[in-house]
Amino acid sequence: MGKRIRAQRRGSSPKNRVSSHRFPGASRIPRGVEEVATVMELVHSPVHTAPLVRVRFEDGSETHLVATEGIAVGQEIAMGGNVSLKPGNITELGQIPEGTPINNVELRPGDGGRIARSGGNSAILETRMGDRVRIRMPSGSLKDLPAKCRAAIGILAGHGRSEKPLMKAGAAHYKAKARGKLYPTVSGVAMNPVDHPHGGGNHQAVHGPNSIARTAPPGQKVGHIAPSRTGKMRGKKKE
């Protein structure tokens, strides 16, 4: 008789949830705001890979935004349709010249920003096509978006965060803990047969098929889940 595998034991326990009190606040572009905001402070957020900025509007309200590289305390951030091409300013994609690096790009007008939000990332505005705009994603792929979508001008701060090695297991532990990730992770082939369907054997390998049906029960559902192809490409290609 086996026992519950690691994925089952994890469940939805509080240990593997992100602590909400570690979020400084929502970091989205506010909807329907066309005014100038002042940067009050730079904020470190354990659950974000880029720093945040706390900005204050003329009416006294405050919000958080992801920080663009080169932004400073006391700097003014303009939001609206007619803004200067200054790092940190926020405007519609249809108002931004071609070849400009942008970050915190909206997928739909008013959603607050969804693309290029991790530290050091940026997208490039490739071309404008009437009411559509083509941008080059951080991955290199191209995507067409409505020209009414907004974005921040410049490259997101936090570049180079992944260049420094973690050096020790403790650093990896706290990095995973801040984001509610399960750590450490052990591969199934390194376990015993009683712990995982891939465990056991005289050497570490999946002894048998690695594909599993979508309808398999939880303790059995490991490996390639309902794959359309596995890469082995056996047999001759049909003409």
TrEMBL record:
The keyword Zinc does not apply. Residues 85-218 form the Large ribosomal subunit protein uL2 C-terminal domain. Keywords: Ribonucleoprotein, Ribosomal protein, RNA-binding, rRNA-binding. One of its GO terms (cellular component) is cytosolic large ribosomal subunit. Residues 1-26, 212-239 are annotated as: Disordered. InterPro entries: NA-bd_OB-fold, Rib_uL2_dom2, Ribosomal_uL2, Ribosomal_uL2_arc_euk, Ribosomal_uL2_C, Ribosomal_uL2_dom3, Ribosomal_uL2_RNA-bd_dom, Translation_prot_SH3-like_sf. One of its GO terms (molecular function) is rRNA binding. It comes from the Archaea. One of its GO terms (biological process) is cytoplasmic translation. SMART domains: Ribosomal_L2 (SM01383), Ribosomal_L2_C (SM01382). Belongs to the universal ribosomal protein uL2 family. This is 50S ribosomal protein L2. The lineage of its organism: Archaea, Methanobacteriati, Thermoplasmatota, Candidatus Poseidoniia, Candidatus Poseidoniales.
